[in-house]
Design goal:
Keywords: Membrane, Transmembrane, Transmembrane helix. It comes from Clostridium senegalense. This is DUF2140 family protein. The chain has one domain (31-208). It is 29% helix and 44% strand. It is built from six helices and twelve strands. It has helices at residues 2-25, 43-50, 72-84, 87-90, 149-153, 203-208; strands at residues 33-34, 54-57, 61-71, 93-101, 104-113, 116-129, 132-142, 145-146, 162-165, 170-174, 181-189, 192-202. The radius of gyration is 23 Å and the shape is elongated.
């Protein structure tokens, strides 16, 4: 009888220990923006953010400059809209939130695996280089368990727009398909990302065509 009670106490203790480990270590305890949120996306206002604000014209070329700023809420909405277009990804996501901390971009996501919710966090450092935007992977975790860049990048497929540089832990956003457009700079401050674009149209190149 006493042995049965001891076994029962061990089982109950083990159950509560595992429950506490899951709750404090993995359970999504931060409120994120739900994937089924209604996002009021005004395409015209979004496009206006990228329209040139500065024009320069001379005999040889037309130069256009744009100074675009996106805050953390706008970045969150864009990520949710992008994720909704991927039915496979959308099936695993419950919520997303982008945070900006110093010069880092933090992606918080609540995911579900076998209907069990988990919290995840991934940190990137964004910067511009060679007409691309680079997201350098800093660290990531599922609950309190670290996730290597190798595991993250293995789930990302290269496209014309997104390439993975596993050797340098980089996700590269490539804009080379957009002719005459150059990304000059990217800065992170005040919970926003600011991107400087420049488009140069050389009249001689048009004549040659």
């Amino acid at each position: 009888m006493k042995k049965s009670i001891k076994i029962l106490i061990v089982i109950i203790s083990l159950f509560f220990s595992l429950a506490a480990l899951y709750y404090f270590g993995f359970y999504p305890n931060t409120k994120l923006k739900p994937m089924d949120s209604t996002i009021e996306f005004n395409e015209k206002d979004f496009v206006d953010k990228f329209l040139p604000k500065d024009f320069k014209l001379n005999l040889s070329e037309l130069s256009l400059k744009s100074h675009t700023t996106l805050n953390d809420e706008e970045l969150t909405d864009l990520c949710i809209l992008a994720a909704k277009k991927d039915s496979n990804l959308n099936n695993y996501l419950d919520g997303l939130k982008i945070e900006i901390d110093g010069d880092s971009l933090i992606l918080n996501a609540n995911v579900k695996y076998n209907k069990i919710p988990f919290r995840t966090k991934f940190v990137f450092k964004p910067y511009a280089e060679n007409n691309t935007i680079i997201l350098k992977y800093q660290k990531g975790s599922i609950g309190f368990i670290p996730v290597s860049s190798e595991k993250i990048f293995s789930a990302i497929e290269d496209t014309d727009f997104i390439q993975v540089d596993k050797a340098n832990d980089n996700i590269i956003l490539n804009f080379s398909a957009i002719k005459y457009l150059d990304i000059k700079d990217l800065s992170v401050a005040d919970n926003s990302i600011t991107i400087d674009f420049e488009a140069t149209l050389k009249f001689w190149d048009l004549i040659k065509k």
